[in-house]
Structure formats: C-alpha cells, structure tokens
Amino acid sequence: MSTVSTAVEGPGAAVEAPRPYQSYVYAYPHKTAYRALPERPELGALWAGEPQHALSLYLHIPFCEVRCGFCNLFTRIGSPEGLTTAYLDALERQAGAVRAALDTDARFALAAFGGGTPTYLTAAELTRLCDIAERCTGVDLRAVPLSVEASPDTCTADRLAVLAERGTTRLSLGVQSFLDEEARSAVRPQKRAAVEAALGRIRAAGFPVLNIDLIYGIDGQSEASWLRSLDAALAWRPEELYLYPLYVRPLTGLGRRPAEATGAGWDAQRLALYRAGRDHLLGSGYQQVSMRMFRRAGSPAGESEYACQTDGMVGLGCGARSYTSRLHYSFDYAVNATQVRGIIDDYVATEDFSRAEHGRWMDDGEARRRHLIQSLLQAEGLDPAGYRLRFGSSPAEDFPAELAALTDRGWLEGRPERLVLTPEGLAYSDAIGPLLFSPEVRERMSAYEAR
To answer: Coil, strand or helix: which one is 230?
Structure first.
C-alpha cells in the first residue's frame, strides 16, 4: 500500500492533498495488519458472550479459471484433480468447528459466496457448498439475502439453476469492460459475445438482483469508450453497478507497468472517468451508495455493500475473515501464486479448526476507527447519535484533527444529524480511508512483506 502523502497535525492544517487512489478500504484493519497469533485462542472462548442473533456468513472459494492482470485476490488458477473435493471437505470440517463454537441459538441474517470465483465449482459442487452452509452452520439460504460472485465463462445454465433454486438473491458478474480491446488490455481474456450470453442466462434464471462490475483507468480507455461500456451494461438494467478504479499491484500481471504510467496523469484520468461514470449513472436513474456502488432507483437492496460497523462475521475458507468484537482473524494471506498454493494446501490438510491462527486483536480505539471509516465511506454517512450510543462519545471528540482536515478540504459536510462526505469527498474515498488508519495499523501494513 502506498502511504498517504498528508499528515494531519491539527484542525485547519494546510497540507498537500493526497493522491486520490491509495487503497480500496473494504474492511478495517486490512489483512496485511494481521499477524500469527501465538496464543491460538479457542473459537468457543472468542465467541462466548458475542451477540449472535444476526450474524453474517461468508464462504470463500479460492479458485479461478484465469487470473486477470489487475487481480491481487487470494486465488489460484485451476485445481489439480481432487483439490476442489478436498477443499470442500476442509470447508465442511471448519464449518462444523465454527458451529460448535457458536451458541445453540445463533442465527444468520445474510450470506455470501466469494472468491476467487465460486462458480468455478461444478453444479454438483455448488450444491454441496450450499449443503455445507445450511447443514453445518444452520443458515437457511432461502430465508436470508444470499450474494454470489461469478465470471462470464462459469455462468453455465446448470450452475445458475443450482444457485437460483437455493435462494440466491444477488448474482454479481465481473465484466470489467464490454469492449474486447479493453478486456485484452486489462489481461482479462473474454469476448463481449460470451459476456452478453452469460447475462442472458443470468436474467433467465430470475435472480432478484444483478450486479455488474466495471473498471475504469484501463490503458487506451477514453471517456467515450468508458461510456460505451457503461451503456452496454445499462442495456441489461442491472439493479446494481460497481465502478472500480484500476489498481496496479505488486505480483499481478499489470504490476510491471513503468512508474511513469501510474503517476499523476493516470490519477487525473481515473478521476475524470469516475466523474463521467458517476454522472452518467445518476442521470440514468441510479443512486450512489458509495464511491463504487450504484443502485437503480426502486431496486431491492442486495445486501451487497458489507459495511458492518459492528461485528459478527463468520468466515469459512482459507481466504475468509471472521470478526468478533475483540479479534479479527483468518488464515495466512498472500498474493504470490506459489505462496497461495501453499496456504491452500495447508488449509486442506488441516483437521482441527477449533482455534484462530492469524489475526489482530481489536481495542476500543480501533473499534471506533472502524466504525468511523466504514460509515463515512458510505454515501449515507455516519450517524453521530448511533456512534454515541455505542461508544459514549462523539466522532468530533474522538477524531477532531482528522474530521477538521476533511472539512477544510471540502470533503466532509458536518450536519447535526449526520456526517457525510461531499461529492468530492466520495471521489477521494480511496485517500480518505487510509488517512483515517491508526498509526499502528499503518506501520504493520508497511512492514508486511508482499508474498
């Protein structure tokens, strides 16, 4: 992660504006701030006394058919014979251990399958995945919102039929661009015809919410081509659209781009494309939920923008996180293909899942930061009354310098009933999030060796 170029020293401090694209903050703290837990705490002790009436469930499938040039997710390409079966066996063992650690009356309020690409699994394997979720954890997938990530080539009719029958409410398709030349530039080998065919099958399957992911900032992309890709997506009237800025990360296919290709000019290009895309969607009847997410007016909420300021996430799979009020934990993390394969092999070989292995203990200060970050980065902002009810103080009391700096930049609007980012603040979400990290988390992330 690149460091933020601004240092907040006090209210009204005049400091250089940070680069707009620092890091996508979808969770805080990031897994690069996690470390091995020498005490290996038992899950039963971690979950004892935690609120368990509305848990979130996430199942991670770490396989893809190809690796896109921009991808730095925890995933491996392909699977040797028998590996997906062995992985599901391990997932079942882990689910049983987690269920034993939870209260007997624990309940789940939403579920998601992510990756990787969950639809890399065959239809029979997806059936087993759903069975593991239901029989081992007790979630009723047909009674809660269920979101599943997919790619065009794996959206076969038999797979989609399984997901529809098991109650999937939201299908998220990673398209990135409808233009073949842009897909090639992003090292995503796909054809528009295949994308359109997959969308046809998805709509025929009848999922209540279709989400389409698109990327801006691709080499050779212009505002005109970006809007053509957006219009191709809008032709399917998706209930949701995610607009992602392209990031070039170490150890990815695009990670060898020269530094001059990723400097201030690229920042300006991405900002211009973001604004063009945002304005186009707002003019097409979509509402902005966050910097990335847009929802068509009147569409059902797909429970897709996980911004839980409290805790209660149960993650199953070698790349999944779990959140309690005191500890965020997961398995080890890597990007390098060799390291990822090793972690998956270790996961598959694990018999005893009753302890947390890697994570970060959360104190009260980090809990307040997490609530602040994950609220402010949503368009609806932060409710000071709810914050005070939880922590007994106000955001202004806890983070005076940070909030003053955001206000001075014109990024934050402080109303009595709400703290919300301005439109320009939302545009700079990927700078604001890292700006609010604690010094300790920044240090741990900087010290993490990308693998």
So the answer is: helix
Per-position DSSP letters for 315-377, written without gaps between them? EESTT--EE-SSEEEES----SHHHHHHHHHHHHH-----B--EEEE--HHHHHHHHHHHHHT
CATH number of 35-296: 3.20.20.70
Distance between CA atoms of residues 252 and 389, nearest Å: 43
CA distance 83 to 352: 19
pTM for the model stands at 0.90
Q: Which pLDDT does position 156 carry in this prediction?
A: 98
Burial of 235 (0-12, 13-18, 19+ CB in 10 A): exposed
Length of the chain: 451
Average pLDDT over residues 147-159: 96
Q: Cα–Cα distance between 395 and 169 in angstroms, integer?
A: 35
Query: Both tokens of residue 33?
Result: 């701030």
Q: How many CB atoms lie within 10 A of CB 158?
A: 10
Q: How far apart are CA 104 and CA 118, in angstroms?
A: 28
* Angular region, 336: left φ>0, alpha ψ -120 to 50, beta rest: beta
Virtual torsion, Cα 155, 157, 158, 164, nearest 10 deg: 80
Ranges of each domain in the chain: 1-34+364-451, 35-296
Secondary structure percentages of the chain, helix, strand, coil, to 5: 40, 20, 45
The tens digit of pLDDT for each residue in 63-79 reads 887 665 555 566 677 78
Give the Cα separation of 47 and 318 in Å (integer). Answer: 19
Q: How many CA atoms lie within 13 A of 426 on its CB side?
A: 20
CATH fold of 1-34+364-451 reads Arc Repressor Mutant, subunit A (1.10.10)
Show the beta-strand stretches assigned E in 44-104.
55-61, 63-64, 76-77
Q: What is the pLDDT of residues 302-359, one digit of tens each?
A: 554 444 545 799 999 999 999 999 999 999 877 677 888 888 999 999 999 999 999 9
What is the CA angle 287-289-293, rounded to 5?
95
Return the beta strands (E) in 62-195 as ranges. 63-64, 76-77, 108-115, 146-150, 170-176
Residue whose entry in the numeric block shows the structure tokens 């690796």 = 67
SS3 state of residue 211: strand
Identify the CA nearest to 346 among candidates 124, 27, 31, 36. Answer: 36
Instruction: For residue 233, give every residue at least 6 positions away whose Cβ sits within 8 Å of its Cβ, in sequence order, or none.
Output: 175, 178, 212, 214, 241
C-alpha Rg value of the chain to the nearest Å: 21
